[in-house]
Amino acid sequence: MSPQTRAVTTPAEAQAALERMSGVIDRLREVIEQETALVQKGELADAAAMSAAKAELAGELFAGGELLKANAKFLLQAAPTGCATLKQVEEAFRAVLQRNMIVIATAHAVSEGIVRRLSGDLARARSPQVYGATGRTNAPPPRHGQPLAVSRVL
What we know:
By secondary structure, this protein is mainly alpha-helical. Helix content is 71%, strand content 0%.
């Protein structure tokens, strides 16, 4: 076994491993809740700055999960209440993560819609305003559109 997946041999070690994992999940949940709140407020730069903390905690979560998987049978026997508590923490985390994904997907869809609308408006402004054979204005051909540059620094 690697150092991350060492054997858990006592009930005290089992309880400590489960508590460590619960702590990591709780810290990651707090970071994700903060990120969700920042995205909802439109503070995307601050939300993006949290990626390093999320990545570090996700690494800890992965390592802890490997340890728990490697010792699953013993953990269930030695610390059943700790396992039940960890399951509750995980379910609460999953709900927070689901909400975060919805908020981020919504922000992505809104920003994509804004950029598409802006691009269309710019293309219409640059195209000649003449009438075609049908008596309606001609839409600009998509291949003649000018590229849209967006500055990420405001």
